[in-house]
DNA sequence: ATGATTGGATAGTGCCACTCTCCAACACGG
DNA sequence: CCGTGTTGGAGAGTGGCACTATCCAATCAT
């Protein structure tokens, strides 16, 4: 199919697709002449994935390029690719730099002990670990409780989710498909999880605080 | 304290604080003369909350203003204020507009049935509901499984989290403090939850796919 | 008295995800 | 074979947003 059809079928404007091609979020089409290129179903799928990452996952363009490059990079083993891809995903950008050293230290200790109690390896350079520390540090500074005992249930829940999701990924056959699935599920289940939490909060709050 | 001290104690640059004052994210200081104003501990607390919302919670400035205004609005009852405040929080912005009607319809049905099965009220205008539908719709379009049976465990987990959090909020005494706590915990536990999920995924993936 | 500081207003900056404009090379109907 | 329209590509331009730099007059410290 031509660019115009790719645009129509995906709902993405032509100039935007051109932009994605330039940014290497989409592989170029099969050149059929000096000024024509042909796109296939694979491009359509990829375009939808890109859109989902950018719009729902709020992934910056530069990051999405890295992630997709890592998925496609056949020179390394699958687990490394998975690690690289997922590590690049946000939150991984500007962490919070305010605040004093003391709370930062305490947040760090809490995060580490939490992971040890859950039986997880502690990898201090992991972006997720850094994000966790930032968030805990902000909570501490605001005076909200976030000790290990509070957080343990969250950790166990996260473990359940992860087990479920990794099992799901394992069901895909082709390695690249698995990697793509890992990225897609990591990013797209975030809004699912967060909106379910919001809905549950609303339900619980109206039960507890609202009479009606 | 003066602006300079507020800046120093919070780690936020003076021009940025001025900007927040202009944007009504911070209430003005107590005027002590035509060109001097006095700030107190409450301003510091509020400033930290604003920073946490903007930087960790990625809340847009305009949204944060709405949320904080709703928290402070004493003309309505607490549950309404809570609802207004939390409803304004992202994800609530640009939902995904691509894609066909069919998947959107199916996503809608899935979301509704899921909530019914969880015993929750279905409020189609709820921003969280709309986000959920968008995310499910994207998953469907990409061909990933997201039927009710897959999602039920997520919903139950979300319910557990919400119960825990709402109970925590109930422990605060003053209504405004409760509302602030609700906003802060809603926003700040998101990165906590998401990074725990990432860490758990990494743990689980290396257990399952990586030998060592 | 006088130089520094303060709070407030206005305009400017940098980043980012697009989006517009142009162009030469085709494709295609007559 | 010729004119008309479309295509893909490249560069510059746009709009939104979260700051940030500059000014200014009033006031404070000495």
TrEMBL record, chains A, B:
InterPro entries: DNA-bd_dom_put_sf (IPR009061), MerR-type_HTH_dom (IPR000551), MerR_fam (IPR047057). Keywords: DNA-binding. Residues 1-70 form the HTH merR-type domain. Residues 86-110 are annotated as: Disordered. SUPFAM superfamilies: Putative DNA-binding domain (SSF46955). PANTHER family: HTH-TYPE TRANSCRIPTIONAL REGULATOR ADHR, REDOX-CYCLING DRUG-SENSING TRANSCRIPTIONAL ACTIVATOR SOXR. This is MerR family transcriptional regulator. It comes from Streptomyces millisiae.
């Amino acid at each position: 199919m031509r660019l115009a059809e790719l645009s129509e079928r995906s709902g993405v404007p032509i100039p935007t697709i051109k932009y994605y091609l330039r940014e290497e979020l989409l592989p170029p089409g099969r050149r059929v002449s000096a000024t024509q290129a042909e796109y296939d179903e694979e491009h359509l799928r990829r375009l939808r994935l890109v859109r989902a990452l950018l719009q729902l996952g709020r992934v910056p363009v530069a990051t999405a390029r890295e992630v997709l490059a890592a998925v496609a990079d056949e020179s390394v083993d699958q687990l490394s690719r998975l690690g690289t891809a997922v590590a690049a995903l946000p939150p991984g950008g500007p962490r919070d730099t305010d605040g004093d050293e003391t709370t930062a230290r305490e947040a760090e200790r809490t995060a580490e002990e939490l992971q040890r109690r859950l039986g997880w390896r502690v990898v201090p350079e992991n972006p997720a670990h850094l994000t966790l520390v930032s968030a805990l540090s902000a909570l501490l500074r605001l005076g909200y409780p976030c000790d290990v005992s509070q957080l343990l249930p969250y950790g166990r829940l996260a473990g359940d989710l992860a087990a479920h999701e990794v099992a799901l990924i394992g069901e895909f056959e082709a390695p690249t498909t698995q990697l793509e699935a890992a990225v897609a599920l990591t990013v797209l289940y975030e809004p699912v999880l967060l909106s379910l939490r919001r809905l549950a909060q609303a339900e619980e709050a109206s039960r507890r605080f609202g009479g009606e």
